[in-house]
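@channel anyone free to eyeball this complex?
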Amino acid sequence: MKFKAFLTQDGVNLLDKRFLPSLDKIGRVCHLYLTRDHAIFLHNLLGGDGIQSVAQFKKEVLFNDYRISSQNEDRIAFAIDVSLLHRALRSAQTIQLQSQDDTAAIQIKLVKKLPVGSLNPAPFLTFETKGLRSAVVQDVPISKPLSRADVVQLQTALDAAQDLPQTLVQVPDLSQLQNLVERLRNVGELLMLAITQYGDLHLQVSTSLITVGSEFRRLKVLGIQADAPSGDQNLSAPTRTEMAIQRGEALSVQVSLKHLAKSLQCHLAKPDCAFYGISPQGVCLTVIFQFFIPGTRLTDKSISFHCRLPVLDTGSN
Amino acid sequence: MSAVAGGAEAPDLVCQLDSVQGMVDALSSVRWKRHQDAVIELSEHGIVLIVEETGCLQAKVYLKRELFLLYEYAAEGRPRFGLSLGLFVDCLNTFSAPGHSTVIEIRYPGPDMQLLLKSMDSPDACTYAEIRTRIPDTISWDYHFEPTGNVPVTFTVRSAVLKEAIEDLEWPGSSVQIRIQPDPPSVTFKAEGHGDLQIDFEYYSNNDLLVAFQCDRILSYRYKYKFLKATTSNLPSSVMKDNRGSKLTIGMGGMLKIQHLVTVLRTVGQHAFNDSVQQPGRIAYIEFFLRPEEDETPIGDE
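replying in thread with the prediction:
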């Protein structure tokens, strides 16, 4: 089992400034899954009842001179502490900047070393920054690489997580939504979220003492869409949603506000747009972040990032 | 008294407000603990919110009708209802987004006697809320305030100074003596407990300290520290920024009345008008009534 590669400058920036801060908010520990073509950061795909997230990069986005080999179709996966990874990356970057030398690229590789005071070698992801005058090595402890069976399970979970909801609505302003969700957290813990095929997103927190809700209408719809029935603008948001569910033109789920707030932390990765959708049968709430090729409005297919929030009660189903 | 639930009659009150943050500020200043029941009283003059700590402390927030963009009052008498102050404030907070000016409509009663709120800004994004109300308890204690003698004993001090003085009095102990005397004109706050701390406000020593002073005899009463603290602990920062004064009056039996003014500014685009002169009268009145401790014979009560 071998892995080594050089980080590209774009890769360093992407991870340091955008993805690692965001992944750290989702959960302290994630899986890093490396294949011949992709590097994928995964949260909670192997069990766990928290929010699942998948951030996938084509290897060229992050790495140069990418070499991987394993007896399991050149696939390697292990668990890693996101904040340690971030610290190692930042310090490697500092050394790289100080050396003022183009050749000071950051190499990462998988190694087994004897930790201080231990008799058993342990696995590390090592960052090596070589300049002309200095070379610095940082070891980030990782879990034992996953077994063949676990990797297969991870790949299966990953394939399953690619299922798209039939209707997705584009959230206009992530920071506005984040602000709303933070304030709703003072009111309750459970949130009803409904998405209609007309492009309405309806959030509602309800307890025995209070009901607070917010509805965003006429959002951009991807996938199955329908025209809003005429005259429904005079109805209240809950009534409209209820009627849409009865007509089969909307789905609603209950999610934890804590999970939703966490998923909104993904805006730290600075996506260009975000879509919300409810998977068929209301199994989960999916949030898909889209990234554009810099300077264009074309989707950058080399990066994909999405979250799946567990559903606490299957509302309309 | 109130409209028939679900009937065609007009609701008791429909009002619109463009300064959610100002209302949150005003209501928060009487929120001294997490779970607090409040009573709201509606009238043609405005909305009054009342909270109290049984028998010791009562606070009122006056939101007069001039603060509202629209104030349609259709009830006879003065409808009263109870709700949770914490929930009401948290709920109002969901309507106030930084950088956006939000107009909200408040309506009472809903079909099930709820208090209904909704945002009015955009047809494509709407926030709404329904707060369950309850039948209020009868007033547990009469906070009727009567001045002592012909000349009310009163002084006005900068709110920021008052707040700071009360915070400083925290460490000595559980009760604070307030003594006011005409000659030389001064007010003394004194706490004794783990140690002693005395804070003197002398009228002649500093013009900025006591803005106004009126007293014809010595009065001295003790007040429980935790209730005294509640009267200033949640004053919004705008009160300090606007350099407002707080007026303290001692009435019959040592009842202490503390009045604050909280600016309820309209937000325009990104910025609030900081100059309250531009929006005169956009003020919420906050009143606290604090009963003295009864452990000793106070000076000044005949």
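from a first look: Helices of chain B lie at 20-28, 85-95, 159-168, 225-230, 237-241.
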